[in-house]
Protein 1
Amino acid sequence: MIDIISKAVLIEEEGEKIYRDLAAKSRNTGLKKIFTYLADAELEHKRVFELMDRGGNTFSAEDDILKRVKAVFAALGKKTDSATMEHYEVGVYRKALSVEQKSIDYYENIKGKIEDFPIIYLSQKSRAY
């Protein structure tokens, strides 16, 4: 079980690093905010796994970060559409989706291996992006 949780922590750390890098490289203010929020969310998810590793199991069903990301996407939708978004920014967004898909795939694969694994919580947050 420790190896599974340790890998989950590493996935969240990798996601946070990637999101911070994407935020730094993005030229779009809205995407910068989204990637910063997502990096913060990855830190929170890492904290959840670290709590699990110590025997805790407190999970939130709804991320405040998810609400902020949705709000930024809504604002972006009013200002621009995918046709006017720079090609670079579309690639950056696709990279973020790839990061989330990697974590979803891992968590789906291990959900039956750990009792009370927070797959519902983590799948909900990842699929929402």
Note: The chain is about 75% helix and 0% strand.
Protein 2
Amino acid sequence: MVFSSFKDNISYLTDPWGMPKVWHFENYLKAWDKGVQNFLVNSIFVSAITLFFVLLFSTMFSFM
């Protein structure tokens, strides 16, 4: 999946499993312009809240 993100559409369709012959970084620029940073912030927020509750409940239940 990571290698596929550096390919253009034609090279992905011709060889989806291989290494990219030409690395295209503009795919990340396009994604950033479309607002992927909002999804990144949301994922970090949900992960932090989940981590907080897991640590809270695991410490509480470890002393039962």
Note: The mean pLDDT is 92.
